From TrEMBL:
It is found in: Membrane. It catalyses: a 1,2-diacyl-sn-glycero-3-phosphate + CTP + H(+) = a CDP-1,2-diacyl-sn-glycerol + diphosphate. The keyword DNA-binding does not apply. GO terms for biological process: CDP-diacylglycerol biosynthetic process. Its main location: membrane. GO terms for cellular component: endoplasmic reticulum membrane. Belongs to the CDS family. This is Phosphatidate cytidylyltransferase. It is a multi-pass membrane protein. The lineage of its organism: Eukaryota, Fungi, Fungi incertae sedis, Zoopagomycota, Kickxellomycotina. Its EC number is 2.7.7.41. The chain crosses the membrane at residues 58-80, 100-121, 133-151, 157-179, 191-213, 272-294.
Amino acid sequence: MNRKQTTPKPTARHLDSPKYSKPQANKSQTFTPSKSAKLIALSASSSRSKDLPWQRSLSWYLMIVTTNSLYGSVFYKTILQLNIPTISTFIYFCLKHHKFVTASLYIIGFVWFVTSLRVGYYKFQLAQLSWTLMLLFFVIYQSHFMVHSILEGMFWFILPSFLVIVNDIFAYIFGFFFGKHQLILLSPKKTWEGFLGGAFSTIVFAFLSTPYISRYSYFICPPQNVFNNAFNFPSCDPNSVFIETEYIIPASFSFIAKALGHNSDKVAFLPIQFHSIGLAMFASIIAPFGGFFASGVKRALKIKDFGDSIPGHGGATDRFDCQFIMATFSYFYYSTFVRSTGILGAKVLSSIIYNLSLDDQVQLYQSLGEHLSLMNITRHLKN
């Protein structure tokens, strides 16, 4: 049996050496830039080297199924609007039974994986499946929350993203000038001084920048359709968190207000400024662990970066390691503590109708038509 030649790869110890302090790694040591698709390509190349072609196809299949589960209904509705006779019946079936179709596709993938297991490669194939599922969760599902945040208003995407960026910048500045104590073994260059300095700077930035971002309807109003942009943005009644509110200054802090030249016992702030502090604390304390996790993955895979599209910074995935977990938290924070509870009845009704099946929507339409006819409303409207 011919032995396959292998190329020595750098160990975790080598990654900390001066040789790897600059982006000099060659193509075989880095990922091509992209999110989940390019990361899955790593397991695909490993499967080819072990002559397991179906393992590669299965990884891509699971990614497509996951994407279908999240965005399939929107995709099917768009295709139906094109009125293509040859596929309309099939697309309508997939839309009407979207959940069942998705579950069936996952079951097919499971059976496919079990039947593809080969003697001598069980551990490797299970590891590849785990790698694929991990990527689907950390990249596809968390990106889905980014999309949901944008649909609630660009503010909930812009601010969290900037908080992560600001924290990264100031953590580097404080660490560069004052860093002495190592923070975590996974990232030897991270220091406690940088961690704390970045956290303080991020909180200050969040509190001071929020009023300026909140001035523009483009950021705080949910988009009505995909064609909304900075030149064609919707108008809306702002959420109460974007409306200035007066707060009574506690007596114990009144001397600070007087020292700053504020003689009143009240002060006006936007409620969103206090919410931004919570987001900033998460961006400073928890979000960096997304980067630490990515560092652990890169060390396990013996690579320096996930890509090389950004000179000196790796690839797009290297820049999004903290953004994914931040986007997930921001969406759930908004849904739990900020989303307006005083929603108009029409909005609630439209939301209910939107979630009905197509058959139920048609039946509701017919029932409303019959009801309006009996009430003689249609003739009144025409007059």
